[in-house]
Amino acid sequence: xxxxxxxxxxxxxxxxxxxxxxxxxxxxxxxxxxxxxxxxxxxxxxxxxxxxxxxxxxxxxxxxxxxxxxxxxxxxxxxxxxxxxxxxxxxxxxxxxxxxxxxxxxxxxxxxxxxxxxxxxxxxxxxxxxxxxxxxxxxxxxxxxxxxxxxxxxxxxxxxxx
Length: 162
Prior knowledge:
Blueprint: H1 3-7, E1 19-21, E2 23-26, E3 29-36, E4 51-54, H2 62-65, E5 70-73, H3 81-89, E6 93-95, H4 100-103, E7 109-113, E8 118-121, H5 137-156
Parallel strand pairs: 3-4, 4-5, 5-6
Antiparallel strand pairs: 1-8, 2-6, 3-7, 7-8
């Protein structure tokens, strides 16, 4: 396990089965339509009430949280963007599943159990197979860069570290 794994945990869920496990980061249970978003260019496909499924979220994803009924990510921990914003909006979130964006397709019906850190896959999701292996490296870099910028801003404003 690398140093980064402790900050951005991701499980290695099996390639089959009806339940993904992750870390419960915002309580509640919701069943609805999944919308898998790999990058901001796809934000226009997101509909109010969809469950946001992404490799990781950055501040660019924040407006979608106001529309989302739940959040599922491949990577994420207690202080990740997804975790904090989902709690602020009061929507269930399961983070660090490791394979959500490969196992879930846009349009699938899923249940996000933010109380127990589980995502129940229904419809075609339980048998979905990856079209192509997705790399999480760009999202990790983007998330770390956003955190670094936020830290610098806080330091310059004298609100951090004193």
